Amino acid sequence: MKSFYFPLYSIILLFLLFLTSSVFSEKFYVSLNGSDSSGTGSQTNPWLTITHALNSITGTQANPHTIVVDTGRYSPATNGENFPIVMKSYISLQGSGIDSTILDAGENNNTNRIITCANVTAVNIHGLTITNGYANRDASNNENSGGGILIKNSSYLSVYNNRIINCSAENYSGGFARGGGVACLSSGFILIDNNIIVDNFSLADGAQSGGVYFQVSEGMFSNNLLQSNWSGALFGSAGGGLSCFNSSMIIGNTIIDNRAASGGGISFTGPCLIARNTIRDNEAGTGMYGGSGGGIFCYDEGFIGGSHSNGNNIFNNTL
């Protein structure tokens, strides 16, 4: 049997060093009162769109940047925002709080996710509401994962203090749809902390995770609320709230009222550590091959905390 040793303190230290570095980064500003034609990105003369800001700056390890987004709803209708917002290495995105800064891709039959992080490093995303994102495998969008945020082939990235709501991943051409709210694929050292992730879904022949799909090495998913997410499919789905793979830590989350065929709350495979979570009122059983693990469904080995200090609070889950 493999050891379930996790270098917890080393991972936390790396994340703290990374997050601290963003505090001292050079800041640029975006506002609904700004201009992409005459703005300079300063606090007194901001740009209008996040996409223009990203196209205008380049961060480095020695000189990371942060785009500070002012209050308001950023969408194609309000400021001409283009989705998906494609992040670049060493550039972070900072909102003014989840009740103040909203990224909304919902107008005009949106077919785009909100944020894409592909092949990047050293990125923080925080203080935002992310809503009405959509990922679907079609001619214009060939990655049907992460309706709200897609993280792929990336490292040292954090998503914290956000609200991710009413996003979806769908695939009507067969195959999988993964992570209606957030999908992390083939990435390492990813932190998802203190987010509200509600009312998201994935839908396909084989759907994985309505809330968050977490395929991460040395990752941490902590202190999040996962509520009312669902994963649906004709032939079975897994992880209504969360699907976890590889050597990740799932700690201190509240996972309630999620649905899938197997693992209504969580499905996982590989050496994941699951501790100090509240997992309640989730349901498994939808789909042709459903009916396993109302709260948790384990495909492979893992460690589910059961001691007084590390145990989970698991109750009232149904099949």
How would you explain this protein's 3D organization?
- With 319 residues, this protein is mainly β.
- It has a single domain, classed as Single-stranded right-handed beta-helix, Pectin lyase-like (Pectate Lyase C-like, 3 Solenoid), CATH 2.160.20.
- The chain contains 2 helices and 35 strands.
- The strands form 5 sheets. The protein has a 17-stranded parallel β-sheet that branches. It has a 9-stranded parallel β-sheet with strand order 3-6-9-13-17-22-27-31-35, with no helix packed on it.
- β1 (26-30), α2 and β2 form a beta-alpha-beta unit.
- The longest helix is centred in the N-terminal third of the chain and has 16 residues, at 8-23.
- It is globular and about 60 Å long.
- The protein starts with 7 loop residues before the first helix and ends with a strand.
Quick take:
With 319 residues, the chain is mainly beta. It contains 2 helices and 35 strands. The strands form 5 sheets. The chain has a 17-stranded parallel sheet that branches. It has a 9-stranded parallel sheet with strand order 3-6-9-13-17-22-27-31-35, with no helix packed on it.
Topology:
Layout lengths: L7 H16 L2 E5 L19 H7 L8 E5 L2 E3 L10 E2 L4 E4 L6 E4 L10 E4 L2 E6 L2 E3 L2 E3 L12 E4 L2 E6 L2 E3 L2 E3 L5 E3 L3 E12 L2 E3 L2 E3 L2 E3 L3 E6 L1 E4 L2 E3 L2 E3 L4 E2 L3 E4 L2 E4 L2 E3 L2 E2 L5 E4 L3 E3 L2 E3 L2 E2 L11 E3 L4 E2 L8 E3 L4
Parallel strand pairs: 1-2, 2-5, 3-6, 4-7, 5-8, 6-9, 7-11, 8-12, 9-13, 10-14, 11-16, 12-16, 13-17, 14-18, 15-19, 16-20, 16-21, 17-22, 18-23, 19-24, 20-25, 21-26, 22-27, 25-29, 26-30, 27-31, 28-32, 29-33, 30-34, 31-35
